[in-house]
Amino acid sequence: MRTHYVGDTPLDDARLTEDLAQTDSLTWSEAYSDYVFGGAWKSCMLFARGGDAGDGVVTHYDHERPAAFTPFADRLPYLRELIEDVADLDRLNFVRLAKVQNSVIIPHRDLLELSELADETRNAHRMHIPLVTNEDCFFNEGDTVYRMRRGEVWFLDASEIHSVAVLSSQERVHLMFDFVDVPSSKPLTTVRGAGPDAGIPDDRTVKRPPLTDAEHAGLMALADILTPETVNEVFSIVIKRHFRSDGGENFVWRTMTDIARAAADPAVLAHVEELRRHYTLERTA
Questions:
Q1: CA dist., res. 217 & res. 211, Å (int)
Q2: The domain that contains 240 carries what CATH number?
């Protein structure tokens, strides 16, 4: 489903604050933190196959068992109620509470490793509801950078290359819903609003200035320090620049490949090309 803003769902500030305080006592997974530069991407499962909180890796769950609320959800009554209110539980597969701060996420495609699963058990549609966010939290798809605001309901086309930047010490906290793609007479969400054709509203997009020649030269100069040991740091700099300046389509992977090609160590280019394959082209469970 195309990335688009649907509408808003009201949030009860007092009850949400109480539930989020309770999450400090939960066990948070750091699965998928290899996608992140800067810190960890932390999540806990509130709804999953078999009702098992598990380790957070989607392919590690028993997809033969029906999806259900996990014990973590039982400890967060408001968030459980919110999930029940906004989602079609018949097609809901997973719900994660996810938090991240002071980090960027590598441009990637999701769902690549799920191709062997049957339609009725495979994640196909991704929905986000930001619970805690700020103006320094960004999403990117193609050459579009945009913000999701608190209490908004968004569908994200996770099969497209996308990335995230949280350029703040304040934790960004989202509910992430994954639905299966099976026929139904009901919509995936009860929240009324725009359909897929609406796309990303113009007032949610971030208008970035064009990348300057000096900025491009500064990035290319990173080839002098790029080694297998510094790849993550250089990647982080390039991704952050992407969220502040418009360098055109496929800027991050194109720029990293150019920097790696100019680096003294030929092993760096092979490593960057392998990362690109893994995160955007093919990945196994």
A1: 10
A2: 1.10.1720
Chain Cα centroid distance, residue 276: 17
Say how many domains are in the chain. 2
- Give which of 260, 280, 284 is closest to 272, Cα–Cα: 260
Buried residues in 175-190 as b, exposed as e (16+ CB within 10 A)? bbbbbbeeeeeeebbe
**Domain shared by 82 and 217, yes or no:** no
Phi, psi of 31 (to 5 degrees): -60, 145
pLDDT at 182: 94
Task: Map tokens 């100069």 to a residue.
Answer: 221
67-86 pLDDT, tens digit each? 999 999 999 999 999 999 99
The tens digit of pLDDT for each residue in 233-264 reads 999 999 999 999 999 999 999 999 999 999 99
Q: How far apart are CA 252 and CA 163, in angstroms?
A: 10
Give how far Cα 128 sits from Cα of 3, 71, 166, 168, 268, Å.
Answer: 11, 21, 15, 19, 35
Q: What are the tens digits of pLDDT across the range 164-194?
A: 999 999 999 999 999 999 999 999 999 999 9
CA distance 224 to 259: 9
